[in-house]
Amino acid sequence: MADLKDRVEGLRKAFEAEALKVGDAKSLEGLRTAFLSRKKGHVTLLFEGLKSVPAEDKREAGRLVNAFKTFVQDGLQTLEGKVRTDGRPAQALDLTLPGRKRYVGAPHPLVLFQQEIENVFLGMGFTIEEGPEIETDYYNFEALNFPPHHPARDSWDTLYITDDLLLRTHTSPVQIRVMEKKKPPIRIIIPGRVFRRETPDPTHLPMFMQIEGLVVDEGITFAHLKGTLEYFIRALFGEKIKVRFRPSFFPFTEPSAEVDIECIVCGGQDKSCRVCGGTGWKEILGSGMVDPQVLKNVNIDPEKYSGWAFGLGIDRTAMFAFGITEMRHFYENDLRFLRQFGTK
Q1: Which terminus of the chain, N or C, has less C-beta within 10 A?
Q2: Closest CA relative to residue 147, chosen from 256, 248, 293, 310
Q3: Is residue 210 within 8 Å of 313, Cβ to Cβ?
Q4: Which tens digit of pLDDT belongs to each residue from 149-172?
Q5: Phi and psi at residue 257, to the nearest 5°
Q6: 273 in the same domain as 196
């Protein structure tokens, strides 16, 4: 063991002496070969010599040789940096080779679009709420006034885990959870993933993004709903966009309305437009005044308070805004597609 220590110490001094002479890439490579060559390098020979070390000394001997190897590697790395700093690169550069392009990551287009929507509502004093993606039948349907035999509760439309647990079909359950915990005034938006039993096609997927809004306070009317949504749509699509409200029905709002905007692809001028079907209009969200029964379900007095709500599909609206014909493009991880959106 003493002989090994002396040998290692002698090699250490030899390395330090040779290191002082290194001044270019050639001498650096010679030093590296002398100590780290796989066949006859000094470090390699030291490791081979461990075979003859007595068993009781092998652990200490191995530690000693490994420490010396680290010393040599660190010394060579320092010398390499010194050679390059002095303007003499360790390896010649081929200036005819193409440069290396760095690909910088960017937010997903749906994340960018969701942030645009959130920023509009945050500017109006709304807050963002979130909730669980696995919901109970009560929060997903019953508390929202869905009758027991409503088609949406059918297993052909909803992904059930058990008889009472399911993957939420909309973000509306969060409205119930928030109203149970907070008393009016309430002004929130709820973005998140939702799930439905859908066959994938260009405009349908079993998982997609949705954002909903809810306002509950004294004296809230349909005029507040209309004014807020018109402001939101024009902030998102431009001041000149045309907007219209059409009567509709949803179990948890009464009265209810669907909101259409002028087709931004054809401007209502192309009868063969694939986006609007030649109608000149595109439906983008559903809305309405919160049904009084929903308020009763969360112990909010409908005689004192009223409210409105809306729901919008982020994926479908982004398709319309970006002129994309396939919703599946958002989820296929094709970098050629994703890099088009950059960092807005």
Answers
A1: C
A2: 293
A3: yes
A4: 777 777 668 899 998 899 999 999
A5: -150, 145
A6: yes
